[in-house]
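Kindly review both lines to help learners:
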Amino acid sequence: MYEQTRNLGRSVYEFPEAAGIFIPLVGAFVQLILVFLIPFLSWLEAIQTVYVITSKRAFILTVGCSTTVISFISSELRVISRRENKDGSGDVIVYIHQSKDYDGDIQTKEIGFKQVHNSKAFENMLRQINFS
Protein backbone atom coordinates (compact mmCIF):
# COMPACT_ATOMS: atom_id res chain seq x y z
CA MET A 1 0.00 0.00 0.00
CA TYR A 2 2.81 2.44 0.90
CA GLU A 3 4.56 1.82 -2.43
CA GLN A 4 1.38 2.61 -4.35
CA THR A 5 0.71 5.96 -2.62
CA ARG A 6 4.36 7.01 -2.56
CA ASN A 7 4.52 7.09 -6.36
CA LEU A 8 1.34 9.15 -6.84
CA GLY A 9 3.05 12.48 -6.28
CA ARG A 10 4.99 14.03 -9.13
CA SER A 11 7.83 16.50 -9.05
CA VAL A 12 7.63 19.94 -10.66
CA TYR A 13 10.77 19.02 -12.57
CA GLU A 14 8.78 16.39 -14.46
CA PHE A 15 6.66 19.20 -15.95
CA PRO A 16 9.04 21.98 -17.05
CA GLU A 17 6.41 23.67 -19.21
CA ALA A 18 4.15 24.02 -16.14
CA ALA A 19 6.86 25.93 -14.27
CA GLY A 20 7.25 28.27 -17.25
CA ILE A 21 3.56 29.13 -17.12
CA PHE A 22 3.22 29.10 -13.34
CA ILE A 23 5.82 31.79 -12.56
CA PRO A 24 4.30 34.55 -14.78
CA LEU A 25 0.83 33.70 -13.46
CA VAL A 26 1.98 34.13 -9.87
CA GLY A 27 3.67 37.44 -10.78
CA ALA A 28 0.50 38.71 -12.47
CA PHE A 29 -1.61 37.63 -9.50
CA VAL A 30 0.67 39.46 -7.03
CA GLN A 31 0.55 42.62 -9.15
CA LEU A 32 -3.23 42.42 -9.37
CA ILE A 33 -3.51 42.06 -5.59
CA LEU A 34 -1.24 45.10 -5.08
CA VAL A 35 -3.21 47.21 -7.57
CA PHE A 36 -6.37 46.66 -5.54
CA LEU A 37 -4.80 46.49 -2.06
CA ILE A 38 -2.86 49.78 -2.05
CA PRO A 39 -5.88 52.04 -2.82
CA PHE A 40 -7.94 50.07 -0.31
CA LEU A 41 -5.35 50.66 2.42
CA SER A 42 -5.25 54.39 1.59
CA TRP A 43 -9.05 54.52 1.76
CA LEU A 44 -9.05 52.61 5.05
CA GLU A 45 -6.56 55.04 6.56
CA ALA A 46 -8.59 58.01 5.29
CA ILE A 47 -11.87 56.87 6.86
CA GLN A 48 -10.09 56.25 10.18
CA THR A 49 -8.60 59.77 10.34
CA VAL A 50 -10.32 62.92 11.60
CA TYR A 51 -8.88 66.44 11.46
CA VAL A 52 -9.95 68.95 14.11
CA ILE A 53 -9.17 72.68 14.17
CA THR A 54 -10.03 74.76 17.23
CA SER A 55 -9.19 78.37 18.05
CA LYS A 56 -6.00 77.35 19.88
CA ARG A 57 -4.78 74.11 18.31
CA ALA A 58 -5.18 71.49 15.59
CA PHE A 59 -5.47 67.72 16.00
CA ILE A 60 -5.00 64.67 13.84
CA LEU A 61 -7.01 61.80 15.32
CA THR A 62 -6.46 58.33 13.90
CA VAL A 63 -8.58 55.41 15.09
CA GLY A 64 -7.85 51.79 14.26
CA CYS A 65 -6.42 48.97 16.34
CA SER A 66 -5.13 51.78 18.56
CA THR A 67 -5.99 55.47 18.81
CA THR A 68 -3.37 58.07 17.93
CA VAL A 69 -3.74 61.79 18.60
CA ILE A 70 -1.26 64.28 17.20
CA SER A 71 -1.81 67.75 18.61
CA PHE A 72 -0.30 71.00 17.36
CA ILE A 73 -0.52 74.12 19.53
CA SER A 74 -0.37 77.49 17.82
CA SER A 75 3.32 78.08 18.59
CA GLU A 76 4.27 74.72 17.01
CA LEU A 77 2.00 75.01 14.01
CA ARG A 78 3.56 76.23 10.80
CA VAL A 79 2.57 75.28 7.30
CA ILE A 80 5.56 73.92 5.42
CA SER A 81 3.89 73.08 2.16
CA ARG A 82 0.56 72.62 0.44
CA ARG A 83 0.01 70.29 -2.49
CA GLU A 84 -3.15 71.04 -4.38
CA ASN A 85 -4.85 68.91 -7.02
CA LYS A 86 -6.85 70.34 -9.93
CA ASP A 87 -10.10 69.92 -8.00
CA GLY A 88 -8.80 71.94 -5.01
CA SER A 89 -8.22 68.97 -2.74
CA GLY A 90 -4.76 68.23 -1.46
CA ASP A 91 -2.34 67.92 1.45
CA VAL A 92 -1.22 70.53 3.97
CA ILE A 93 2.09 69.49 5.52
CA VAL A 94 3.00 71.00 8.90
CA TYR A 95 5.98 68.88 9.97
CA ILE A 96 8.64 66.75 8.28
CA HIS A 97 10.19 64.03 10.42
CA GLN A 98 13.56 62.65 9.34
CA SER A 99 15.19 59.61 10.86
CA LYS A 100 17.76 56.99 9.95
CA ASP A 101 16.82 53.39 9.39
CA TYR A 102 18.83 50.36 10.46
CA ASP A 103 21.42 50.70 7.69
CA GLY A 104 21.84 54.48 7.93
CA ASP A 105 19.55 55.66 5.11
CA ILE A 106 17.54 58.80 5.87
CA GLN A 107 13.79 58.20 5.99
CA THR A 108 11.44 61.17 5.60
CA LYS A 109 7.84 61.20 6.83
CA GLU A 110 5.50 64.09 6.17
CA ILE A 111 3.07 64.81 8.99
CA GLY A 112 0.05 66.88 8.20
CA PHE A 113 -3.46 66.98 6.93
CA LYS A 114 -3.78 64.67 3.95
CA GLN A 115 -6.46 64.55 1.25
CA VAL A 116 -8.53 67.50 2.53
CA HIS A 117 -11.28 68.70 0.20
CA ASN A 118 -10.31 72.37 0.01
CA SER A 119 -6.62 72.57 0.83
CA LYS A 120 -6.29 76.34 0.40
CA ALA A 121 -9.17 77.10 2.79
CA PHE A 122 -7.78 74.52 5.22
CA GLU A 123 -4.36 76.18 5.11
CA ASN A 124 -5.98 79.57 5.79
CA MET A 125 -7.79 78.14 8.82
CA LEU A 126 -4.49 76.78 10.15
CA ARG A 127 -2.82 80.14 9.67
CA GLN A 128 -5.63 81.85 11.64
CA ILE A 129 -4.73 79.73 14.66
CA ASN A 130 -1.27 81.31 14.62
CA PHE A 131 -2.71 84.85 14.72
CA SER A 132 -5.25 84.22 17.50
